[in-house]
Design brief:
alpha+beta, six-stranded antiparallel β-sheet, 33% strand, disulfide bond, zinc, cytoplasm, Heat_shock_Hsp33
């Protein structure tokens, strides 16, 4: 869809499921923004998660997409929570250049109790644990992993702590999820999900503008990360702007990513770059799962055999692969 925005001229809007890189030269800020629609629907619908779990998975997918599309090499970014709450595991991964998948594991009884007590915010669903960011460049490279405690009321707060501690770059993260109830082209009720997000980072060309001191050097606890950073005036202005974004703006299809960026930063000179599409596409395959099964012991294989067949269902895409037991016998 081609439209004209004053000050930006005429161009094609990215639309859903496209990440839009941007730069605000007047604030020394760079970032990425996205609105997710059909791709997110496909991920959530196949699992039929309870609403609080679906929202948590959606936020994790947005965060993963925003960060994964910034990778400049062939590899994978994995964003994962491990905790002791009703939702003890959420994982999303992005495989370059454009493949996304995600799933969550939860305890139905514990989740039901949490819902009855109105404890459905991320901090309640996750409980105590960690948020891990893993970058995998393949078998010939060592994995990099950054870990922070689940110390925050929202996923965007926790992610912000990670950037301050591990990446040492002033970063603002905004995430939003919306549940839509409307009707399809035949007038039948329809349930849809939308999500949006933005990551903005302070990346001045002049190193003296990055006035940080005593910054925590890596993973682990930090008692007060905000006290370790002397806020630059430009970054302070940018942070306030990003913080003013409402969740409805992040997910509203009538606003659009480029229009939202213009609303926020037009006075400072925002520039948008060509969007990058992302797709719901699992990396599982029959060959990969057969290799995994072949690595198991004979005893483990025997426990999974039923009527001479071994069946495995991918946790991400729910695809079931069936093998004859003779195919996966240990060598």
């Amino acid at each position: 869809m081609t439209e004209t925005i004053p000050g930006l001229g005429q161009f094609d809007f990215a639309g859903d499921d496209h990440v839009v890189p941007f730069q605000v030269e007047g604030l020394d800020v760079r970032g990425r923004a996205v609105q997710l629609g059909p791709m997110l629907d496909a991920i959530l619908e196949r699992h039929n998660y309870p609403l609080p779990v679906a929202r948590l998975v959606a936020e994790t997918v947005v965060l993963t997409v925003l960060l994964g599309t910034s990778l400049k090499f062939e590899g994978k970014l994995i964003v994962q929570t491990k905790s002791n709450g009703p939702v003890d595991l959420v994982v999303a991964d992005f495989s370059t250049p454009d493949r996304v998948r995600a799933y969550a594991r939860y305890n139905e009884e514990a989740l039901s109790i949490a819902e009855q007590n109105g404890l459905t915010e991320p901090q309640h669903l996750l409980g105590d644990g960690i948020l891990a960011f893993t970058i995998d460049q393949g078998v010939h490279s060592q994995r990099y992993q950054g870990i922070v405690p689940l110390d925050g009321a929202t996923l965007e707060e926790i992610a912000g702590v990670y950037f301050r501690q591990s990446e040492q770059i002033p970063t603002k993260v905004r995430l939003g999820v919306a549940e839509l109830l409307d009707r399809d082209e035949n007038g039948k009720p329809r349930h849809r999900w939308r999500a949006g997000g933005m990551v903005a980072q302070f990346l001045p060309e002049a190193p003296e503008r990055m006035r940080q001191r005593d910054l925590h050097g890596g993973d682990g606890d930090a008692t007060d990360v905000d006290a370790d950073f002397e806020v630059d005036d430009l970054w302070g202005e940018a942070s306030v702007m990003v913080q003013t974004i409402d969740a409805d703006e992040l997910t509203d299809p009538t606003v659009g990513t480029e229009r939202l960026l213009y609303r926020l930063f037009h006075e400072r000179g925002v520039k948008v770059y060509p969007p990058q599409a992302v797709y719901d596409k699992c990396s599982c395959s029959r060959e990969k799962l057969r290799d995994v099964l072949a690595s198991l012991s004979q005893e483990d294989i025997d426990h999974t055999v039923e009527d001479g067949m071994v069946s495995v269902t991918c946790e991400f895409c729910s695809t079931t692969y069936s093998f004859e037991a003779t195919e996966v016998r240990p060598q």
